[in-house]
Design a protein that fits this description.
258 residues; 0% strand; ADP-ribosylglycohydrolase fold; 15 helices; mainly alpha
Length: 258
Protein backbone atom coordinates (compact mmCIF):
# COMPACT_ATOMS: atom_id res chain seq x y z
CA UNK A 1 0.00 0.00 0.00
CA UNK A 2 2.78 2.43 0.86
CA UNK A 3 4.45 1.40 -2.38
CA UNK A 4 1.43 2.71 -4.26
CA UNK A 5 1.51 6.04 -2.45
CA UNK A 6 5.24 6.62 -2.86
CA UNK A 7 4.99 5.67 -6.53
CA UNK A 8 2.12 8.11 -7.00
CA UNK A 9 4.05 11.00 -5.46
CA UNK A 10 7.20 10.24 -7.44
CA UNK A 11 5.27 9.91 -10.69
CA UNK A 12 3.06 12.95 -10.14
CA UNK A 13 5.51 15.45 -11.60
CA UNK A 14 5.70 13.55 -14.88
CA UNK A 15 1.98 12.90 -15.44
CA UNK A 16 1.66 15.92 -17.73
CA UNK A 17 5.37 16.21 -18.56
CA UNK A 18 6.11 12.72 -19.86
CA UNK A 19 9.67 11.46 -20.06
CA UNK A 20 11.20 8.46 -21.79
CA UNK A 21 14.17 7.83 -19.52
CA UNK A 22 14.80 6.10 -16.21
CA UNK A 23 17.22 8.82 -15.17
CA UNK A 24 15.19 11.38 -13.24
CA UNK A 25 15.13 12.74 -9.67
CA UNK A 26 12.69 11.43 -7.08
CA UNK A 27 10.54 14.03 -5.26
CA UNK A 28 11.59 16.91 -7.49
CA UNK A 29 10.00 20.30 -6.90
CA UNK A 30 6.31 20.12 -7.75
CA UNK A 31 5.79 16.51 -6.65
CA UNK A 32 2.56 15.90 -4.73
CA UNK A 33 0.11 13.23 -3.76
CA UNK A 34 -2.80 12.82 -6.17
CA UNK A 35 -6.19 11.14 -6.32
CA UNK A 36 -4.35 7.81 -6.52
CA UNK A 37 -3.13 8.27 -2.96
CA UNK A 38 -6.38 9.67 -1.58
CA UNK A 39 -8.46 6.82 -2.95
CA UNK A 40 -5.93 4.14 -1.99
CA UNK A 41 -6.23 5.45 1.56
CA UNK A 42 -10.02 5.42 1.24
CA UNK A 43 -10.00 1.72 0.29
CA UNK A 44 -7.69 1.01 3.25
CA UNK A 45 -10.02 2.91 5.55
CA UNK A 46 -13.04 0.96 4.31
CA UNK A 47 -11.25 -2.29 5.13
CA UNK A 48 -10.15 -1.06 8.55
CA UNK A 49 -13.51 0.41 9.55
CA UNK A 50 -15.82 -2.11 7.92
CA UNK A 51 -17.80 0.56 6.12
CA UNK A 52 -18.66 0.28 2.44
CA UNK A 53 -16.17 1.15 -0.26
CA UNK A 54 -18.50 3.77 -1.75
CA UNK A 55 -18.90 5.53 1.58
CA UNK A 56 -15.17 5.67 2.20
CA UNK A 57 -14.35 6.84 -1.33
CA UNK A 58 -16.98 9.55 -1.05
CA UNK A 59 -15.73 10.66 2.36
CA UNK A 60 -12.06 10.94 1.45
CA UNK A 61 -12.81 12.34 -2.00
CA UNK A 62 -14.70 15.25 -0.50
CA UNK A 63 -12.04 15.81 2.17
CA UNK A 64 -9.43 16.28 -0.55
CA UNK A 65 -11.32 17.81 -3.48
CA UNK A 66 -8.26 19.11 -5.37
CA UNK A 67 -6.37 15.84 -5.69
CA UNK A 68 -6.89 15.60 -9.45
CA UNK A 69 -9.92 13.34 -9.94
CA UNK A 70 -11.30 12.58 -13.36
CA UNK A 71 -14.47 14.31 -14.49
CA UNK A 72 -16.74 11.28 -14.10
CA UNK A 73 -15.50 10.60 -10.58
CA UNK A 74 -16.06 14.26 -9.65
CA UNK A 75 -19.64 13.99 -10.84
CA UNK A 76 -20.04 10.80 -8.80
CA UNK A 77 -18.68 12.57 -5.70
CA UNK A 78 -21.37 15.23 -5.94
CA UNK A 79 -24.27 13.05 -7.12
CA UNK A 80 -27.24 12.23 -4.95
CA UNK A 81 -27.46 8.51 -5.73
CA UNK A 82 -23.72 7.74 -6.35
CA UNK A 83 -24.49 5.02 -8.91
CA UNK A 84 -21.58 3.43 -10.78
CA UNK A 85 -20.88 4.97 -14.17
CA UNK A 86 -19.51 2.16 -16.29
CA UNK A 87 -15.90 3.28 -16.28
CA UNK A 88 -13.07 1.20 -17.73
CA UNK A 89 -10.49 3.71 -16.49
CA UNK A 90 -7.54 2.83 -14.30
CA UNK A 91 -8.98 4.58 -11.24
CA UNK A 92 -10.25 1.21 -10.03
CA UNK A 93 -6.78 -0.35 -10.35
CA UNK A 94 -4.68 2.43 -8.81
CA UNK A 95 -6.65 2.41 -5.52
CA UNK A 96 -6.98 -1.34 -4.94
CA UNK A 97 -3.62 -2.38 -3.43
CA UNK A 98 -4.85 -2.52 0.21
CA UNK A 99 -7.12 -5.40 -0.82
CA UNK A 100 -4.08 -7.48 -1.77
CA UNK A 101 -2.68 -7.02 1.73
CA UNK A 102 -5.81 -7.43 3.82
CA UNK A 103 -7.29 -10.68 2.52
CA UNK A 104 -5.70 -14.08 2.70
CA UNK A 105 -7.13 -16.14 -0.15
CA UNK A 106 -7.16 -15.57 -3.88
CA UNK A 107 -10.95 -15.86 -3.93
CA UNK A 108 -11.42 -13.21 -1.26
CA UNK A 109 -8.93 -10.88 -2.95
CA UNK A 110 -10.71 -11.16 -6.30
CA UNK A 111 -14.12 -10.65 -4.71
CA UNK A 112 -13.10 -7.63 -2.64
CA UNK A 113 -11.29 -6.10 -5.61
CA UNK A 114 -14.48 -6.49 -7.61
CA UNK A 115 -16.54 -4.86 -4.87
CA UNK A 116 -14.09 -1.97 -4.51
CA UNK A 117 -14.16 -1.35 -8.26
CA UNK A 118 -17.85 -1.74 -8.99
CA UNK A 119 -19.03 1.18 -6.87
CA UNK A 120 -17.73 3.40 -9.68
CA UNK A 121 -15.94 1.29 -12.32
CA UNK A 122 -18.46 -1.42 -13.15
CA UNK A 123 -17.29 -1.96 -16.73
CA UNK A 124 -15.73 -5.45 -17.09
CA UNK A 125 -12.33 -3.91 -17.91
CA UNK A 126 -12.51 -1.67 -14.84
CA UNK A 127 -13.21 -4.67 -12.64
CA UNK A 128 -10.54 -6.79 -14.33
CA UNK A 129 -7.88 -4.12 -13.88
CA UNK A 130 -8.59 -3.83 -10.17
CA UNK A 131 -8.58 -7.59 -9.72
CA UNK A 132 -5.28 -7.94 -11.58
CA UNK A 133 -3.44 -5.41 -9.42
CA UNK A 134 -4.89 -6.74 -6.17
CA UNK A 135 -4.06 -10.32 -7.12
CA UNK A 136 -0.52 -9.37 -8.12
CA UNK A 137 0.01 -7.76 -4.70
CA UNK A 138 -1.43 -10.83 -2.99
CA UNK A 139 0.66 -13.30 -4.97
CA UNK A 140 3.81 -11.24 -4.42
CA UNK A 141 3.34 -11.04 -0.66
CA UNK A 142 2.61 -14.77 -0.55
CA UNK A 143 6.00 -15.48 -2.11
CA UNK A 144 5.14 -16.19 -5.73
CA UNK A 145 7.94 -15.82 -8.24
CA UNK A 146 7.81 -13.18 -10.94
CA UNK A 147 7.18 -15.90 -13.49
CA UNK A 148 4.39 -17.31 -11.36
CA UNK A 149 2.74 -13.90 -11.16
CA UNK A 150 3.17 -13.39 -14.91
CA UNK A 151 1.56 -16.72 -15.71
CA UNK A 152 -1.33 -16.33 -13.28
CA UNK A 153 -2.27 -12.83 -14.43
CA UNK A 154 -1.90 -13.80 -18.06
CA UNK A 155 -4.07 -16.89 -17.66
CA UNK A 156 -6.78 -15.28 -15.55
CA UNK A 157 -7.06 -11.89 -17.25
CA UNK A 158 -5.71 -12.47 -20.74
CA UNK A 159 -3.06 -9.79 -20.42
CA UNK A 160 0.05 -10.01 -22.59
CA UNK A 161 2.85 -9.72 -20.04
CA UNK A 162 5.67 -11.06 -22.19
CA UNK A 163 6.78 -7.63 -23.41
CA UNK A 164 9.72 -5.72 -21.96
CA UNK A 165 9.76 -2.16 -20.69
CA UNK A 166 12.12 -1.21 -23.49
CA UNK A 167 9.76 -2.75 -26.01
CA UNK A 168 6.73 -0.89 -24.65
CA UNK A 169 8.38 2.50 -24.17
CA UNK A 170 9.05 3.52 -27.75
CA UNK A 171 5.43 3.73 -28.90
CA UNK A 172 3.61 4.13 -25.59
CA UNK A 173 1.54 7.24 -24.88
CA UNK A 174 -0.86 8.58 -22.28
CA UNK A 175 -3.56 5.98 -21.64
CA UNK A 176 -5.93 6.02 -18.65
CA UNK A 177 -7.78 2.82 -19.54
CA UNK A 178 -7.25 -0.29 -17.47
CA UNK A 179 -6.57 -2.32 -20.58
CA UNK A 180 -3.97 0.20 -21.75
CA UNK A 181 -2.15 0.74 -18.46
CA UNK A 182 -2.53 -2.18 -16.05
CA UNK A 183 -0.61 -4.74 -18.18
CA UNK A 184 2.09 -2.15 -18.83
CA UNK A 185 2.43 -1.37 -15.13
CA UNK A 186 2.68 -5.07 -14.36
CA UNK A 187 5.48 -5.43 -16.93
CA UNK A 188 7.27 -2.53 -15.20
CA UNK A 189 7.27 -4.61 -12.03
CA UNK A 190 8.08 -7.90 -13.75
CA UNK A 191 11.01 -6.31 -15.62
CA UNK A 192 12.52 -4.76 -12.47
CA UNK A 193 15.28 -5.71 -10.06
CA UNK A 194 14.24 -3.53 -7.10
CA UNK A 195 11.36 -1.38 -5.86
CA UNK A 196 13.07 1.73 -7.17
CA UNK A 197 13.68 0.12 -10.56
CA UNK A 198 10.00 -0.79 -10.91
CA UNK A 199 8.98 2.83 -10.36
CA UNK A 200 11.66 4.15 -12.72
CA UNK A 201 10.40 1.70 -15.34
CA UNK A 202 6.84 2.96 -14.90
CA UNK A 203 7.65 6.66 -15.14
CA UNK A 204 9.94 6.08 -18.12
CA UNK A 205 7.08 4.80 -20.27
CA UNK A 206 5.96 8.40 -20.70
CA UNK A 207 2.29 7.74 -20.01
CA UNK A 208 -0.02 8.25 -17.02
CA UNK A 209 3.09 8.33 -14.88
CA UNK A 210 1.66 8.70 -11.39
CA UNK A 211 -0.82 5.87 -11.87
CA UNK A 212 1.65 3.57 -13.62
CA UNK A 213 4.14 4.14 -10.79
CA UNK A 214 1.38 3.68 -8.22
CA UNK A 215 0.40 0.27 -9.60
CA UNK A 216 3.94 -0.95 -10.25
CA UNK A 217 5.10 0.38 -6.88
CA UNK A 218 2.30 -1.41 -5.06
CA UNK A 219 3.24 -4.83 -6.44
CA UNK A 220 6.96 -4.17 -6.07
CA UNK A 221 6.55 -3.38 -2.36
CA UNK A 222 4.87 -6.74 -1.80
CA UNK A 223 7.48 -8.60 -3.85
CA UNK A 224 10.67 -6.92 -2.59
CA UNK A 225 9.43 -6.67 0.99
CA UNK A 226 9.39 -2.92 1.53
CA UNK A 227 9.78 0.53 0.07
CA UNK A 228 13.30 1.80 0.81
CA UNK A 229 13.03 3.56 4.16
CA UNK A 230 14.52 6.87 3.04
CA UNK A 231 11.94 7.11 0.26
CA UNK A 232 9.05 6.10 2.52
CA UNK A 233 9.97 8.72 5.11
CA UNK A 234 10.15 11.48 2.51
CA UNK A 235 6.85 10.48 0.94
CA UNK A 236 4.99 10.43 4.25
CA UNK A 237 5.91 14.09 4.72
CA UNK A 238 3.70 14.93 1.76
CA UNK A 239 0.58 13.47 3.40
CA UNK A 240 -1.87 15.42 5.56
CA UNK A 241 -2.63 14.03 9.00
CA UNK A 242 -5.81 12.14 8.10
CA UNK A 243 -4.18 10.23 5.25
CA UNK A 244 -1.03 9.47 7.21
CA UNK A 245 -3.07 8.18 10.14
CA UNK A 246 -4.89 5.61 7.98
CA UNK A 247 -1.63 4.52 6.36
CA UNK A 248 -0.07 3.95 9.79
CA UNK A 249 -3.10 2.08 11.13
CA UNK A 250 -3.36 -0.14 8.05
CA UNK A 251 0.30 -1.05 8.12
CA UNK A 252 0.10 -1.89 11.82
CA UNK A 253 -2.90 -4.18 11.32
CA UNK A 254 -2.07 -5.85 8.01
CA UNK A 255 1.63 -5.36 7.30
CA UNK A 256 3.41 -6.06 10.56
CA UNK A 257 5.57 -8.75 8.96
CA UNK A 258 7.36 -6.24 6.76
Amino acid sequence: MLGAIVGDIIGSLYEHRPIKTKEFPFFALGSRFTDDTVLTVAVADAILSGRGYAEALHDFGLRHPRAGYGGSFMQWLHAQDRAPYGSWGNGSAMRVSPVGWAFDSEGDVLEQARLSAEVTHDHPEGVKGAQAVALAVFLARMGSSREGIRRRLGTLFGYDLDASVDGIRADYGFDVSCQGSVPQAMVCFLDSDSWEDAVRNAVSLGGDSDTLACMAGAVAEAYYGEVPAHLAVRAMRFLPHDLGLVVGDFRQVFMTDL
